[in-house]
Structures are given as C-alpha cells and as structure tokens.
Write a structure and sequence with these properties.
Two copies of one chain form a homodimer. Chain A is of the alpha+beta class. Chain A is built from 16 helices and 18 strands. Chain A has helices spanning about 5-15, 25-30, 50-65, 115-125, 145-150, 155-160, 195-200, 230-245, 255-265, 290-305, 320-330, 335-340, 355-370, 395-415, 435, 440-455, and strands at about 20-25, 45, 70, 90, 100-105, 110, 130, 165-170, 180, 205-215, 215, 220-230, 250-255, 280-290, 310-315, 345-350, 375-380, 385-390. In chain A, the strands form four sheets. In chain A, strands 15-12-14-13-17-18-16 form a seven-stranded antiparallel beta sheet, sandwiched between helices. A five-stranded antiparallel beta sheet of chain A has the order 5-6-10-8-9. A four-stranded mixed beta sheet of chain A has the order 1-2-4-3. In chain A, a hairpin with a 4-residue loop joins strand 5 and strand 6.
Chain lengths: ~475, ~475
C-alpha cells in the first residue's frame, strides 16, 4: 500500500519543514516504531510539525502522494493505535506541546496535542485546578493521545472520562482542511457533535491540533479505604451498597488474588498491608472540600463493610502518606505483573458495574483448566476490568491457549451486556473481535463515517475495523 | 419533494399496522403539525408504531417510496425540529412509551422514546433515584425528544446534559436497518461514539427506538439562594467567585430586569419577593446528602454576595416551600413573557460562562435603538441565554427589526466565542445562521456524515443545514 515515492515526498516536505523536523534514518525512526504493546512497525519517514499550518501542509501533501499517515503522541497506548502498520508517514505531535491558555474565569484550558498530561496537571495546580482524566501513563502520555483514546482511569467513576471534558477541538482532515468542532462553551447543540465523534476515534478521522477542555477546582480533601474480601460476589454487593447510600466515590478499584500476590512479591514494603489469602481487594476513595461530608462518607463506607458478609478486613488511611501507600499497591499492579518476566495478552473489557466480579469468577474458572496464568484488576466503579494473560515467552502452545482464553473472555463480556474495550481503544489488539460485538450493519455504518472524513483511507489505516468483514 | 404516491404507501402500511395506528384525516393530523414554536406544517400521513419492528418496516417502506419521514415526540421543541416541513410521513413515537427496566443494581434505566420525562421521574422517585436532565417541558416532552435535542435545563451546570447520561441507543436507519450503539456500560471506546453522535442530532440521522441511561441517587438536601444585582458585570463576578470557591451548584439561573418585571406583573403573589429596579436576578441552588456540607456551601455563597459590590440584596429560602416560590419566579418567566400578548423570536445562544452578562449588556444596548422589546434569562452557570424578542402581532416593520436584532445577537455571540444554540437545537429556527458559526468545510463534513446515515436525505429533511450553502 505504501507509496513508492517516499524520496519525492520528503523533497517536497523540505520546502516547508526544517531538517530537524524530518527523521528518515533508521535509528532515529526506531524511537517512533513502538508503544506500550509489544508490537513494532517501522515508518518510512517521521515528521515533527510545530504548528497546525504545518500539519495541514503535510496532510495535503501526503494525500497527493497517497501516503498512509499515522498520528502519534507519547506512545503509551495499550492497543497499538499509534503504530504505523503500513509504514508511510508517522506524524508525531510531540513538538506541539504548548499550554496556550489557562482561563481561570471560565475554568477552561487550551492546549496543543503534544502537552504531557502530568505537565498540564503541574501547571493547573498553581491555579488550584485539575484535569480529572488522569491515565496511569500520565508522565508520558500526551493530551492528544488521551483525546484520541478517550482516556479514563481511576477517577472516571466520579469525574467521567476525557470526552466529558473536551469542549472544543481544532483538527486537520486527511486532505489538509482545518476544521473547528465545538469551542469554548460548556453546552453546544449546533449541528452534529464532532467533538464527541473525534474524541476516542483513535486518530482515524482527523489529526487533532488544538484541544479546549474544561477543568475543575482541585478538591482539598480525600479519604481512602481498603477492603479485603473472601468472596468475589461481596465485591459486587459492596459497590452497589456504596452507590445506593448516595455516595459517589472518586475511585473504586479492584484487584484479584493473583494481582494481590504479585504486588506482595514485587513491593516487599507493602506486604504488611496486603492479605495474600483474600479473593479480592477493593480500594475506595472519596473526595471533596468539606471535612465533615468526606469524613461522613468514609465512615459510612466502613460501616457498610462491617455489615457485609464476605469482607474480611477494612482499613482507612489515616493520612495522605498512608493513602499514597495504598495507591502504590494499585498503581504497581501492572509493573508487578510485567516483572514476572512472561509475555502477555491484555484485555480491557467493560461490563455493567454489578457484573464485574462475576466476569472475574468466569475468567478464573476458564483459567483453571489452562497452563497460562491470569490476573485481573481494574475500575470496579465503572465495571472496567484489565485482564492480563501471562504465557511463557516463545511458548506457542501457551500463546494459543492465551488467545483461546481471550476469545472466551470477549464472548462472555458481550453476553453479559459488556463491551470489548472501556478505555484502551480497539486499535490493532481488539479489532479482530469487533464482529463479536457489532453487526455487519453497524460496522458498515462506522466505515461510512470513516469515509466521510477520510475517503482515501490514508489516516491511521488498519485500526479499529476487522481485516475481513465482507 | 413529497411522493405523489401516498395512497399506495398507506395501503402497504395497512398490511402490518392497525387502523388506529394510521392517521390520514385532516383533523387527526392537525394534532401533529405543530410544536412550541409558532410554525405549522401538515404531514400527509401520521403513523404511530408500537415497536421497533414496526418502525423498521415503516422506514423500509417509506424509503422505497422516497417519502420524507419526520420523527416526533411530545412536540415541545423550540426550534421546529419535529415539524414535517416537506409533508410526507410523521412518525410519532408517542405510543412507544414503556419504561422497560429500572436496574437499581447498575443504576440504569431502559426506556422507549415515547416515555414522558415527568412520568419517568415519578417512577424513579420510588427507587430514590433521579434522571438529572429535566427540561422545563418535562410534563409533556418525551425521552426520545430529549435525546434528539440533547436537552439540558437548570441542573446542567452540575449534572450535565442528556448526552452525559445516555449509555446506549437502539435506532432505526432510514433504510429500516436496526442498529445498537453503546449499551449498558458506563465506559465504552469500541469504535466511534454513535451514542454521542445520535444524541442531539435532531432526528436527522436515525429514529431512536430504545434508550439506555444512567441515573443517580436523588440528593436529599437542597439550599436555594436569590440575589438581586444593580450591575450586570456583578453577575459575572458572582458566578466566577462561586466556582473559584470550589462550589458546584446544581443551578445558577439568571433573569434580566425586563424578565423580573414581567414576572412581577404575571405573578402578583411573587411581587414581594422581587426587586423591580434590579438589573439582574441570580438564583443559586446547591444540593447534596450532607446537611453540614450543603449548609456550608449556601453560607459561603451568601458571604461571597456580601463581599461583592453590585449585589443589592441576597436572601435564602428557609424551607422547601420558600425554595419553590423562588423557583416559580424562574419557571414562569417564559409564560409571563408570552402572556404579554406579543409575537416572539427566540434565541438560545451560549457563550463562555463569564461572558454571559456582557452579552446581555450588548443585547440591551442594541435594543434601546429599536421598537421591539427584549427579555433575556437563562442558565448563567452554563453561559446559556434565552433571548425573547417581542414584536407586535402582524407588525412587519417590527418583525424586520426583530430579525435584524436576532442577526446582531448571533454575530456577537460567535464573536464572543459562543454558539448559536446551547440546548434548543438548530432545527428550522437557527439553520440560516449556521454559516456565521461554521465554515463551508465544516458544514460539508456534517453533510457527509448525514449522507453516511441517510443517503437519500429522507429523514427529517430541511433541518440543521442552511438552505443555500453552495
């Protein structure tokens, strides 16, 4: 598919980009060929624009050369969305990294797509503001990437996901046309919601070049509780009990027994906090600005635990330092699993909140008959489960088993009213399973929408849609 | 445009619909030819399906007859979105009015599009739940209509708009194909966000036949405050001060001097609560489940008023009955304006929150040189302003003036970074102004999206897009 005419394309690019914006040597390009999956795809050329106008010129030119274009941010994606599967052009937005404006009067920010999420949070802190969607990759991931994938993470249960904060986007269509969607208002029903359509579209419809988001005052107080359960069903009941009490925590996190033990091995300092025998750990945090109200909620949650059979231990962090220790357990789960030295298949399934522990039980039952190991953890308040299937490196029998299990998990998820992916995106990793979730008519409709933006199919090709869907 | 072959179409329809589902007589159809605007358009036939399958069959048939289809709910729209401009078929969803499920474990509901918003709230109350988007038309408007228009209203500042609650939709494409978008999970990034695209698409892309929404526990406590200001700028400062204090009220409503006086004339019982000389009234409500926290917030708001020059009076409702009296003032604003016996042009503009009072000032300045009267009121927390331009019935000079002023308001709104419509939709009333807000490329992109759903352009024709946009 890739145009044979890369040298001509690069010559044309040299007319408007500086040499330091053009990467064509293998070593230089090797920094742009990977993400947080284990896949690698080499591009033919990497361009690093500084402005929307440069992005537009590049896209217009790539369009005349029929060159595949893969937009790229911090390469922390877990579904391969930023990988140049067909080679061609990688359009890295890393140098468009200005925080253009922090509008404290309207509580809005305007940023370029290459801004690193953690840098934004630091800047917002100075104004006592925060941007709620804060993925675990925050120190490396870019705002543009978070918009492309509609990033969520722990605070989503209370504060929502990236899409809930994006008010406006400037974006460049594959033919180089610059468009503006939404803007600086919190409400807007003028025409179709292109902001929501672009957010989470995994860079397949347009390249986002500017992002307008709302931000919130940073809550002053948080209270963190940890519970150990001897029964998965109790986790479902606990989550329902918390919501039914009218409490909306800013996090309800979940870890299964395998994850707990893995972290206990990985973080000896945390071992005293962990119950290795527990079927599940649930971490709950409430936040707010009123000490009495947050204290009331935290106590109420502890009371609910007392009344619930299946809870074997429930503790509260007494200060911020203790809260950080509890959070470290949750945050280090994926690193702890990866430290086991095995290869992984990962899923990011999502089911109705109450069903999550029953999906975990199903996965565990499937896994008992297999050699591969499975760990599950995730966002219990959202029903969003991260599944890590560990198989021994280069063991093809185990790899086959892992794929078989992955298929079983996806099918059960859909059967339970769930979806293939809650926050990581379809990208490459889940696209072959799209047909389990969607009818041919639904896939065909999405392809027609793709065509409305990108009639030549040049932008981020071979993502989201299954390869063979005739 | 309308097919000449209506009798043949109706004969085919009789093969699968009962006689009581088919309206063809003029008197019967006259109930379906209007909405809350002053416009009227007669359809050629009205059909009232009971099921998704019937909707699908009707759409498939209408498609083969090239018949325009206008989906319709409670006909409370303020932009003409449910009016059959080209005649043809009105597809009334009023009989698909089942609340299919209230899932208290997952805090989700499944409803048909014809469910009346107020009926849903009544049912949810029994479970101590509520559905936050609650437009003023709640006793007549349908959930389907609220989804089509992405309804907002007073609680949006804290709780968001309809789109923030819709998790899944079943919908029928113009060719009769039934699709499902989203589902029963609070997160979902599998493919493009068709739920967000359909919500607010004003019935131009597909006919929604089932709606899955999240709902919330009903807050137990509310505290309501009312402030009178002698300066519009003070209203902007008050709103910023409240947000900056970390308080997120569930309503921040605004009325200008004309609106205040109009309600004082209309509601003699409320006159003692009203300050006729005030430049603006601001109504603020906080809610929650913790008495101490809501009391703290209400007091803090009153303190902020004391410290703000421009506030001439600030009062708190001491109980629910007094709170209701204050809300009555706000709720009766539009009826009070309509009772003046004049005709109206209405706008639903939205600007960045802080800019709203300055837009009001601009509108007042424009109006001083004119004969027509203007009243403004709306949702100050969202920057969403409802503008009512009153002109004498059948006075064409005043009508021209009203249109001139409307154009000035729209242009200023866009200049201030605002949008044509915040919650009423573009429909017919704002479509000629779309070109002020959007570039030809942006309108063309939206038309290509429309084409992806509705290649023949049969569904709700002549809405949203300007007539001449070559």
């Amino acid at each position: 598919m890739t145009s044979k005419n890369i040298p001509d394309f690069i010559n044309k690019v040299r007319e408007f980009l500086k040499e330091e914006q053009i990467v064509t040597d293998k070593e230089g390009m090797s920094h742009f060929c990977y993400d947080a999956t284990e896949m690698r795809f080499m591009p033919d050329v990497v361009l690093l624009p500084y402005s929307t106008e440069e992005v537009s010129k590049i896209m217009k030119l790539a369009n005349t050369f029929d060159l595949p274009i893969t937009p790229q941010g911090g390469r922390t994606g877990l579904s391969g969305g930023a990988l140049p599967v067909q080679g061609g052009l990688v359009l890295s937005l890393l140098r468009m990294n200005k925080i253009c404006e922090i509008d404290t009067k309207n509580m809005q920010i305007v940023v370029e797509p290459g801004v690193i999420a953690a840098d934004l949070q630091e800047e917002l802190k100075k104004h006592n503001l925060f941007f709620p969607p804060d993925p675990s990759s925050t120190v490396e991931s870019t705002l543009g990437g978070n918009v492309a994938e509609n990033a969520g993470y722990t605070r989503a249960v209370k504060y929502g996901v990236t899409r809930d904060y994006v008010l406006g986007l400037e974006a460049v269509l594959p033919d180089g046309e610059i468009i503006h969607a939404g803007g600086r208002t919190v409400k807007n029903v003028t025409g179709y919601d292109l902001v929501a359509l672009l957010t989470g579209s995994e860079g397949t419809l347009a390249v986002v070049t500017k992002i307008i988001c709302k931000v919130l005052p940073k809550p002053a107080i948080r209270k963190t509780c940890i519970m150990y359960l001897n029964d998965l069903g109790a986790a479902a009941d606990l989550v329902v009990a918390i919501f039914s009490a009218g409490i909306l925590p800013c996090a309800i996190e979940f870890m299964d027994n395998v994850s707990i033990n893995c972290v206990a091995d990985y973080l000896p300092a945390a071992e005293s906090l962990l119950r290795r025998e527990a079927a599940a750990l649930v971490l709950v945090e409430v936040d707010g600005n009123h000490e009495g109200a947050t204290e009331f909620e935290a106590r109420r949650i502890m009371d609910l635990c007392t009344g619930l059979s299946g809870v074997i231990e429930a503790n509260r962090a007494e200060n911020d330092e203790q809260a950080e220790q509890l959070w470290r357990i949750r945050r280090d789960t994926l690193p702890a699993l990866k430290a086991k030295g095995k290869d992984h298949l990962e899923a990011d399934v999502v089911v109705p909140r109450y069903q999550l522990p029953f999906l975990v039980r199903f996965i565990q039952e499937c896994a008992t008959a297999k050699t591969v190991k499975v760990a599950t953890f995730g966002h219990a308040g959202d029903g969003n489960l991260h599944v890590t299937i560990q198989y021994r490196k280069r063991n093809f029998a185990e790899l086959d088993e892992a794929h078989e299990l992955l298929g079983e998990i996806y099918r059960k998820t859909i059967e339970m009213g769930g979806k293939l992916t809650g926050e990581h995106g379809v990208g490459i990793t889940a696209k072959d399973y799209m047909k389990i979730q969607m009818t041919p008519a639904e896939i065909s409709l999405m392809k027609r929408i793709k065509h409305a933006f990108d009639p030549k199919g040049l932008l981020n090709p071979e993502k989201i849609f299954p390869d063979n869907d005739a």
